[in-house]
Every structure is written in C-alpha cells, then in structure tokens.
Amino acid sequence: MKRVVNTLCFMCSVRCPIQVEVENNQVLRIRGNPHVPAMNGGICPKAAAAIAGLNDNQRVRFPLIRTGERGSGQWKRVSWTEALDYTADRCKDIFDKYGAKSSIYCERANLMSDISKSFQKAIGSPNHFTHDTVCKGSINTACRSIIGYTDGQINADWTNAKHVVLYGRNVFESIEIKAMNSFISALENGTKLTYIDPRVTITAAKATDYKMIRPGGDLALNYALMHVIIEEKLYDAQYVRRWVEGFEELCSFVIPYTPQWAEKETGILAEEIVSLAREVSKVKPAVVFHYGYRGSHHPTETYFRRSILILNALMGSIESKGGLFIKKGLKDAGYKAGLKTFSSQKFPEMEDTRRFDGCGQDKFPIADPAHGVGFMLPHAILNEDPYPIKVLFAFRYDPLLSNPDYNTNLKALKKLDLIVASDVNFGGTTALADVVLPESFFLERSDPLQMGSSLKPAINRRTACVGPRFDTKPMWWIVKQLADRLGAGHYFPYETAEDIWNYQLTDLDIKIEDFDETGFVSLSDKAIWWDRNDGIKFKTPSAKIEVLSNLMESHGIPSLPPYEALDEKPGAFRLMCGRCVAHTNVMTQNNLYLNHLVPENRLWINDRRAKELGITNNDRILVESKAGKGEMCAYVTDMIHPEAAFMLHGFGHVEVDSKRSYGKGASDALFQERLHDKIGGSPALDHSWITVTKI
Amino acid sequence: MGDYIISTNPKRCIACHACEIACKSEKGLPLEVTLGKIVVLGPKMVNGNPNMTSVFVPCFHCEQAWCMESCPTEAIRRRKKDGLVYIIDSLCVGCKACITACPWHIPQWNVEAGKVVKCDLCMDLIDAGEEPVCVSVCPTNALEFCKPAELSNNTREAYGRGLLEKKLWATKVR
Hints:
heterodimer, A: alpha/beta, N-terminal domain of TfIIb, Rossmann fold, Dimethylsulfoxide Reductase, domain 2, 4 domains, six-stranded mixed beta barrel, 17% strand, B: alpha+beta, Alpha-Beta Plaits, two-stranded antiparallel ribbon, 6 helices, globular, Mopterin_OxRdtase_4Fe-4S_dom (chain A), 4 iron, 4 sulfur cluster binding (chain A), Asp_de-COase-like_dom_sf (chain A), iron (chain A)
C-alpha cells in the first residue's frame, strides 16, 4: 500500500523538508513537503536524483576492510561485528601508546553532530572538526566578533527585503528552496538585487545590477561603500547611536577609502559605487548585505565578512523586517528548556586538552571550537604538532578533496596508522581508508531531531522511508557500537532512533507522535521580532554591535587594520572555485543523473586572455600552481573577469569504486595552495595563482 | 492541439533541470531519454549585462500530429477527451518513423526497451487530478500547467516585462 512520509532531504546540507511516497519498500516519488508553504512541492535536481542515489550499486554496500594498497580499491567484505571489532582493536592498540587524543573525528555537520562530539569527549579526545571550517569558519568568527552570534544563528528576511546585495553568494545555483522561492517572489514584486562576482552566474542573470568585480576586490568595495554612506550621512543615525559601538573609529578609518581609490582595486567605477550606496540607503532598513557563503575566500576573509556586517549595521538592518534577523529558538517561543543534548553529559577529564588545530587556543584563539579548523589537519599529522596524530575518523566528510592542497593532504593521510571512513558513497578519503563503515542513505534512516531556529521556530524530524537497500547502518548506531567497544557506550543511552528522540524531548511537552502528520512541530505561529529600539539581545560583551570588537581586541587582533592592496601577477590567473546546482561539494559527482547532467568541470577563462594564450573552447589545458598541476578542459567565455579563472568544486575523483566520476575533470584542491585566514581559520580557496597552457 | 499546456516563466526559471531529472527518475528512463526538455539560452553577456532565457519543451500534442500520422502500427493515438497524444507501448515495433517525423524531437528512443517513448503530459496523473511530474517538482514554480485560457496573468506579465527589459538592455551602453 502506498504511504507518504514527511522527512528531511540530505542530498546537500540544507535539509529541505520533503515528502516521500513509498510502496513495497520502494521510493516512488519525492516532492517538497506540502505542509511547508514556501516549498510548494518543489525539489531541486539533487533531490530529484535521490532515488538513483538510494538504489545505486556503486554505493558503499557493506562493511569493508582494506586488503590492497591505500586507494587500490581492493577490499574484503566483512560483517559489521568484524569491522567494528577490528576498528576498536586497532584503536585500543594505538590509544595505549599515544592516548585517545591521537584520534581526530571529522564530519559533515548535520543532525548527528551532537552525538559525534559526545563520542570524542567520551573516548577522551579534544579533536573534532566539521566541514563548516572549510566553508564558513571565517564567517562564523566575523559574526561572533560583531554581534556575538554565529552565522548559523542569523538569516536574511528574503521575503521583505527591498534591496539585496550578494557577494558571490550564488543563491540560484546553490539552492535552499524555501529561501530561494521567497526571494524570487520578492524579485517579481520589485526587490532589487545587486550581484557582485568576477564571474557571471545564474544569480547574476537574475540580478537588477551585476558588477564584474576584480577577484578579491570585495573588501575594498565595502570600505568605499562605508566611506560614501558615512560622508553623505546615509546611515540610520538613530539605530547607529543606539546599537553601534566604535562608530567614531569607523568614521575616521574609512576616510582614505574613497570610491575613486576603490575603482582601481575593484574595477568598478567610482560613480557606480556612490550610486549603489545611495540606492541601498533609500530603502533602509529593508536591506540585506549577505554575509555568506561562497566566493571571496582570501587571507583577509574575516575582515571582508566583518565589513559586510558593518554595512548592515549602518543600514540599521540587523533585526529589521526585510533585513537580517537573529533566529529565535525554543526559549523565545516561551518554552523553558531546549532539546536535551548528549554532549552536555559529564565526561571524564581529559589528560591533555590541547586541540590538533589550536582552535580556541594558541593558534586560532577566536575561531569557533564547535567547528574547529580542519585546514590544520595535514599540518598536525605531518609535523606531529602538538603531538602525534594516528587515527582519523572521516565520517561522511572527505578532507582529501575538500581542503586545499591535495598533494599535501594525500601525504598526510597516508602517514596515518588508521583511517576509519563512513559514508554513503566512495570518496577520496574513503578510498584510502583501512576500514569502511557504510552509512545508510538518508531515505533509509531516521536521525536525531533538528532544532529549526528561525523567526517562527520549529523542530523537524528525519524519518526512515524505506529499509536499507544494502548492509548499511545509521551513523548514531555506528558511533554507539564503537563507543561500546571502547568502553564508553554508557554515554549513548539509546537503542533506536525513537530512544534518541525521546531523550532529546525529555524536558519538553512534545511527543514523537506530534511529528507524524507534517514532519515537524511548529513552536510559534507568528514571527518573533525583537524591539529595534530597545530589545535586541546582542551577545557581545557590550550587548551592542561591536565594530570595535572586544573579542578581537582582547586577543590582540585589530578590529580595523589598514587595507592591504591586492597583489598582482601578470600572466597568471587567480583561481576561484564554486558550485553548480547539480552537485553538493564532493559528494554527488557519481550520482547517475547528476553525473549525466554535469559530468565534469572545465576551467573558465576570459576570452581575451584565452586568445593571447592560443586557447579555444574545450581545448585540453595544463593548469599549474605552486601546489600542483593537472589537466582539464577550457571553457572560454566573456563571462569572467580577465584576472580570474573559475572551476567547479568537487571533481577530479580518482577512487576506482566511483566508476562514473572516475578521472573526470580536475580537483580544485589540487591547485589551491595552503593559504588561509589566520583569524577565522577558513582556507583561502580563491587566493591561489595558476598558469594555464594549451596541451 | 491538446487541451493543456505547460508554460515557462523565464523570470522564475533557474535552469536547474529538476524537471528533467524528476521525470527520468520517476519513470525509470535511461539517461539519454529526456521527455520534456528545458532549453536554456545563457547565461550570456548581452551588451555587458548577463542574460538568460528558458523555455520548457514538452510534447505540444500538435493538431496535426506528425508522429501519429507516421506511425505504421497505430501505436500513437490521441485521447478524445483532451486531445493528448500518447503511445500504446505494446503496439510500438520500434521503427522510429515518429522520431524522424517530429520536428521537435519529442518521441525518444528508449534503448533499454527497444521502443519509442514520448511525453504524454503524465496523463495518468492528470486523470488523478494532479500535475505532470515536471511541473509539480519545479522548485521556483516557473512551470505552469493549465488550459491556455487559464494561463495566469502573472505569467503573461512576466513574459511581457522580460521582453521589455531586454529591449532596454539592448540600448543601455556600459
């Protein structure tokens, strides 16, 4: 009999609410959850390809132990008991000698993170990091330094915004359906979109105004915008007086950064900068300067993201209708408690609390330890700094292909004694693993409940729609089994997903059945806004927006250092990377339909520059940087700035088990140098220079 | 022509191809078969500004359906009640005459089945009171399924605005 299940997608990290139609343990169709108005039944191509992902024979189908060389694709199929015993025995041997701190656990942050963090604490290691560090570590740090909240705790009011400025934030190709749909309707109703990117994207094609900026020029543009806004008194004076700390210092700081100065740095005409500042100010505070996510990852990234938030502050748009809002949770909706977490249990004291990445400690004092700094992984392994690292739990995350400098990553991973990988598909790191513990596909598993903080908070549930196709398990089960064998099982008091849900709901008057009809429990039927005059609860020491940041200054990091001009390298291209609508990071390139839609990546280069180099469309080219070299195809176009080159992230898979994506395109990680933002810890993904030659 | 149309609002279309993939996935079609295609022009630079236009091309259910007329086994037929043109699978002998005849490349060769397959606007779903798969999954509601007379003013206006803006773009010098 047919039935429908309301659950959460996991083809990317957005977790859109979906409805799945099931019959005889098969998924027949997937639609957007009809109980969520802005979804309107829609799904993205990744969700549309989920059935192919579910039934894919090239998935990791059963537990494996490596028999050949690392990466050779030679495996022995084993039972779960054998795989888990093997993993635990190897861990015990290593921990006896080096301590549990010699293990690092990395994951794609999702509904499991609370349990993953508990696992590391339970076995006695301070080392846990998430993929967020690659994506938005510096955004997180910038947000906390200014308003005391992380980027995950704020959002944009897409529906009511009157003018939105996006910096490489390609909302129509990295889609979050609810937000995108609200925004596209707003655009229809006259909202203006200014899109700033050295490359034309689909978002650029939807923009009211597109500005082809020099790669890396975003910070200069923002300083010039501030200059105009302050000089012409276009800011929201009342809001600034009430909420902004350090405004006077900002005023004197931006004096030299005139639009004329910025013209050279950005390639955008001075009068255009002036007119943008005036345009946005007209509709303040219903303005969004968007703080994330892709694009413009340079060593100064924390300052760039801070500059965006400062612009929002000048517009009075933080916690304003049509601007940015601070997400509200259970307490704001009148509940006395939150979801109960596993990581808040009392764990044994660690003998050594130094982290492998020095996050929140010596190396990155103000970066967020909740995410860690994954960029430091190869450094810690190769240099045994601060101590030897021997074990990597790479759970649904692929540090080899996600982090810059593939060759160094590979060298580091090969040095490890034990790699335990858990994923749905074979990825670069899975292929190097000693033992593979296959995770069930998201349609086959229930996961811990998700707190959906927002203007109208809700709790969402992912529920298994069908039984596992292969011999796979949910991650919370795998982690508990490992913990059991390492003598820490009692920190995971559950047997089933229902047990986990009940545990999370302990302190709340909400029952599991309450989720059955719609897949979520709504906690407030009206949007919760704080009073802009007196009620905004900024979490900074001054309870204000800190342009002069206590967090930074107290660690000797200047809030407003002088601008450093962009370097130039004639003959070379600044490599940028990004994503398309078909793929999620390095996870989906082998999916049957998505692989067919976008099978490989090509290097975008400007037509004029290509002509000088004698390169035409689809030519095979050799791409070289300080970090590595590789071959791919060229895409010659007038849609990219002459100084920039662009490639899609996530290709260049060389793991033999992923037969569709094997050897197609090149990995951006291969060319990206080991450069990073030393404050927030994000890798400078868009900062490497490459040279290009025709083969 | 059939009673129904699928119109594209190019202002809303983001060229994500969810329509095509959902169709293939739900119907279990081989990769090469795309029953309703989204044809995207761009993004490309037009006078220094990015431009993109999309049109969804499902079967038009032509008044004089050449696929139907060319079929030697009468496997392709028209439904009386709404004029939809469809294939009776068991009667198709795989001669591909319809593929040659259709100027819109609508009938497609299903190599796995050795037969032709074509878009019938998901007539089984229409009969059940639902929309075709491609329309129901569209994440931006760029596709609209209706009878021509019901085509929303919204969509008509969007077309109009799009054309108007292009004209303005053409004269704007950067």
